[in-house]
Amino acid sequence: MMSEKGLFIVVSAPSGAGKSSICQRLLQACPELKFSVSCTSRPPRPNEINGKDYYFISRDEFQRRIDQNEFVEWIENYGHLYGTSIKAMEDFSQKGKDLLLDIEPQGAKKVKQKFKKGIFVFVLPPSRVELLKRLEKRGHETDEAIKARFTQAESELKEISWYDYIIFNEDLETAASQLMAIYVAEKCKRSRLKDKIKKYIKK
Ligand code: 5GP
Q: Rounded to whole angstroms, how far apart are CA atoms 130 and 108?
């Protein structure tokens, strides 16, 4: 197990919970926190930028990286592969930099097993009825796709038991400030500041 100098904040949510907007707010407010760019075999959506939103790679290239054990975790979701590079995470951690991961619960669980000091946050829409409404409102998906996302959301809800923090996204501003509060409080934890405290006492 390597030493973990940087902090990892892992955010999961069923689709339609508003996770991306909340994460964007946190990243804008905290420039020292960087977004963990995953690899995916899914094609980019309009407005998505390679290297910023994801590293868009072919399925063959993804498979090659799986074979080379390059991922901390990877999953197949809606027919596409998604994975987090182990090297990227280790580099960040050893440099003492903080990283925000937007990944679903199966992958988050693997990260939790590997990186003991991660913080795990689950974002929920205000209610299940609201979740379905939000999924329908997305507009660009078939009924079948919406149903599949809803079924997946239901099964993801079962995973909330092992997350450290839960945010009910009733209002974007409130939810974003809750995520910020979690991050800031974690940064101030004595257990994370041992070296700094030692130096401080010595001086
Ligand atoms: P989307 O295709 O909408 O960008 O993402 C679909 C889902 O994949 C989201 O729940 C997102 O959190 C998850 N995801 C994105 N990157 C990764 C990753 O590297 N690993 C895992 N396990 N899930 C990911």
A: 24
